[in-house]
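Tokens help. Consider this.
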Amino acid sequence: AKVNHWAGKFDEAIVAARRALVSLPDDLESRFLLADSLNNLGRYADAHSEYETLFSIDDYSRAHLPYGELLLNSGMTEQAEPYLIAALITDNEEHIARAYYDLGLLYSATDQYDIAISSLENVINAYPDDTPTMVLLAYCLRKDGRPSDAIKLLDRLLQITPTDARANYEAAETHFDLGQLPKAQLYLKKAIEFEPGNREVEATLRKL
């Protein structure tokens, strides 16, 4: 199960993990490999059930991040939060950054923008040019009433990746909040150019 899971052969990993669990139903690693393989195959309800079984047996640190992300992506923010916080207790820098980013998503989705900003700044400290984090941080700064700080961040981001449609869209929204309508229109047109057919962007441009 471990070898197949590592190799991305998730169907085979599921079969092997289930065989192992017949003999050792409380084996945490086999239960994790089963849950994570199901998760990777998009079988989210089955994965959720196996993760629940896993944590009913005992705590398993490797499962904190993937289960927290599964809960978050399922809209279960309250349940996801403790797992994502627990996922920060590791020496793996990449996992720490992922957990902080996920917490930023969680807190932004629940309008807790100040906490979201703090979480996302931890990601930026480790990965200063991470585009998704910079866009989400700019959004949270704007929603937290700090559009000038958002613009500074977006200016730096658009120097790195000027064709990023989401960054241009967020720049448009921020300039709009600052009352800078011509700049907002300019960035919206760029967002449409780089991502044609985006209905959200097109609707905002028509509104302006």
Q: What stands out?
A: The mean pLDDT is 95. The chain is about 75% helix and 0% strand. The CA atoms of residues 64 and 181 lie 44 Å apart. Residues 93-109 form the longest helix (17 residues).
